[in-house]
């Protein structure tokens, strides 16, 4: 295991492009901290994000996870690029000849996926903790640790999304096309859901399906947190809307994502095994 | 003799094309085996299957008497196939470091091997800055990295200048002398003739010959003869107790003997029988002639 991870990190770390992408990614995550300084002035009314309580425990966890999860596409690009380059440079063939098995090759890639996801999660955990410590007036330890489950969601979401990209990279073997297909697949899921909801007039089925499609289902691992803010709730109540606390986060979301990860690994291995090089 | 590789009925079919057709092969330790054939005859496909990158349609093979798994076996093999494949953004040294990690061997050998192939002073330059010949040299260094028990080379002198070709051939001979088993695929006949002890000739995926190089090249050689009285000459040649066969083209007779006959003894024999020759040349068939004969048949 460690050997395979070391092999993959050796390949990645000697690549300048990868280094640049990683620093860009961590830089973007750090930008989150700048949100603390955001103050809108709308006439007499001052909107100060920090005072809105977005950096209070435990909601800071959800907000940090929700916003920064979008940047995972950077990590996906690194993995897609590393896989497609192994095909275009025929280094995959050379690795196998040098004595790496196809299974080991796949796992070295997957371990890199897990590794990057862990780094992203750790980074955002530290960042959220710092923001929370600075801005939370008072909190209990249980409020602090309550957020860790959202970090676990963040981790699984990253592994699931990047593994999905890994499978497509093994399938397509060209970086640009793979990224394009990820986008096309996303649009495809959206259209499927819209068709079921409107054309077939089955909104319940569409809502249910939302929890199971590869890209839609991982949304529930870092659900939208803003409706839980006091301001939002007050505004909602003022407008007479029901405030719905069920955001889909829960065991079902985790199990679905883990099952999909298993499927991606299995299919990647089938592709790798069956194809001649 | 210890067996290094056993191949039984190895076959690869692509839709309509049968690239490799039931190959049987047995390679013993220390042999230098040539895989000879025209372009597209299935040499690289055969090696690809032996190296686990192409899935065979039928048949089987086992390395080292099947004592180790094919993954473990590959770590004892050094291979250079078709084109050198390395990470373009890494230096020569880093690329070999990666190979060491994969093969699970020490990195202490790297500089020595790079020096051996003449890349000592370029080892920290990126692979992408290398010429084809240098890339090929790096590939050879990589194949030698683990001091392999078996060295597999596919067109190893591709992309080399004439001095480079000589250097690489010498290197292969030195490696073979040290007891390493070598499998060499090539379409260059003199390369195989100069380096190999055994040869497997392939055409369109079929095995045409499999055996020792010197058994393929008729070791007794043959004579080209002409005489004024051809009939008399043929009569006495057929009476010779080592006579094998005679062929004729444009009045020039080719005579084959079962034993080694020197030109002077043949001349003496015919003189004694009253036949005077106008032309006498002793020749050895080259691998090239044999190869052309085999592949035309």
Automatic annotation (TrEMBL), chain A:
GO terms for cellular component: plasma membrane. It holds the Pfam family ABC2_membrane_2. One of its GO terms (molecular function) is ABC-type transporter activity. Keywords: Membrane, Transmembrane, Transmembrane helix. The chain crosses the membrane at residues 21-47, 59-80, 110-135, 147-172, 179-200, 253-272. This is ABC-type transport system involved in multi-copper enzyme maturation, permease component.
Automatic annotation (TrEMBL), chain B:
PROSITE patterns: ABC_TRANSPORTER_1 (PS00211), ABC_TRANSPORTER_2 (PS50893). Residues 5-229 form the ABC transporter domain. The keyword Amino-acid biosynthesis does not apply. Keywords: ATP-binding, Nucleotide-binding, Transport. GO terms for molecular function: ATP binding; ATP hydrolysis activity. It holds the Pfam family ABC_tran. PANTHER family: ABC TRANSPORTER, ATP-BINDING PROTEIN. Belongs to the ABC transporter superfamily. This is ABC-2 type transport system ATP-binding protein.
């Amino acid at each position: 295991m460690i050997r395979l991870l070391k092999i993959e990190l050796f390949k990645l770390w000697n690549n300048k492009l990868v280094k640049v992408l990683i620093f860009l990614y961590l830089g973007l995550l750090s930008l989150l901290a700048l949100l603390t300084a955001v103050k809108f002035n709308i006439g007499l009314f001052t909107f100060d994000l920090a005072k809105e309580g977005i950096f209070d425990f435990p909601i800071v966890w959800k907000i940090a996870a929700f916003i920064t999860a979008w940047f995972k596409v950077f990590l996906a690009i690194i993995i897609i690029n590393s896989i497609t380059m192994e095909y275009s440079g025929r280094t995959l063939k050379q690795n196998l000849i040098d004595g790496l098995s196809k299974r080991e090759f796949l796992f070295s890639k997957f371990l890199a996926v897990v590794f990057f996801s862990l780094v992203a999660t750790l980074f955002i955990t530290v960042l959220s903790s710092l923001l929370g410590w600075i801005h939370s007036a008072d909190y209990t330890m249980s409020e602090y640790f309550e957020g860790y489950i959202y970090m676990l969601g963040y981790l699984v979401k990253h592994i699931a999304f990047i593994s999905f990209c890994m499978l497509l990279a093994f399938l397509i073997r060209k970086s640009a096309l793979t990224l394009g297909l990820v986008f096309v697949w996303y649009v495809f899921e959206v259209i499927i859901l819209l068709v079921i909801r409107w054309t077939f007039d089955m909104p319940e089925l569409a809502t249910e399906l939302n929890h199971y499609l590869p890209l839609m289902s991982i949304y529930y691992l870092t659900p939208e947190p803003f409706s839980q803010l006091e301001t939002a709730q007050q505004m909602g109540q003022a407008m007479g809307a029901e405030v719905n606390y069920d955001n889909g986060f829960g065991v079902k979301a985790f199990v679905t994502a883990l099952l999909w990860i298993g499927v991606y690994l299995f299919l990647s291995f089938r592709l790798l095994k069956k194809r001649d090089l | 003799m210890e067996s290094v590789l056993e191949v039984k009925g190895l076959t690869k079919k692509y839709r309509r094309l049968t690239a490799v057709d039931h190959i049987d092969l047995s390679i013993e330790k220390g042999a230098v085996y040539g895989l000879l054939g025209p372009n597209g005859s299935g040499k690289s496909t055969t090696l690809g299957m032996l190296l686990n990158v192409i899935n065979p349609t039928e048949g089987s093979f086992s390395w080292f008497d099947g004592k180790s798994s094919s993954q473990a076996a590959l770590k004892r093999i050094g291979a250079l196939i078709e084109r050198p494949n390395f990470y373009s953004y890494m230096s020569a040294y880093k690329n070999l470091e990666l190979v060491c990690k994969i093969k699970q061997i020490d990195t202490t050998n790297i500089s020595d091997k790079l020096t051996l192939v003449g890349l000592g002073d370029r080892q920290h330059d990126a692979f992408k800055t290398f010429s084809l010949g240098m890339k090929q040299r790096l590939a050879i260094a990589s194949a030698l990295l683990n001091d392999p028990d078996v060295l597999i080379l596919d067109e190893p002198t591709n992309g080399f200048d004439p001095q480079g070709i000589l250097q690489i051939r010498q290197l292969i001979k030195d490696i073979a002398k040290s007891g390493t088993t070598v499998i060499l695929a090539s379409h260059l006949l003199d390369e195989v003739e100069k380096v190999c002890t055994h040869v497997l000739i392939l055409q369109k995926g079929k095995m045409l010959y499999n055996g020792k190089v010197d058994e393929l090249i008729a070791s007794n050689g043959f004579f080209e003869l002409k005489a004024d009285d051809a009939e008399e000459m043929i009569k006495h040649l057929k009476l010779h107790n080592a006579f094998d066969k005679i062929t004729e083209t444009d009045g020039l007779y080719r005579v084959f003997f079962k034993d080694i006959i020197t030109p002077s003894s043949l001349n003496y024999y015919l003189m004694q029988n009253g036949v005077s020759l106008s032309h006498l040349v002793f020749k050895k068939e080259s691998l090239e002639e044999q190869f052309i004969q085999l592949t035309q048949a």
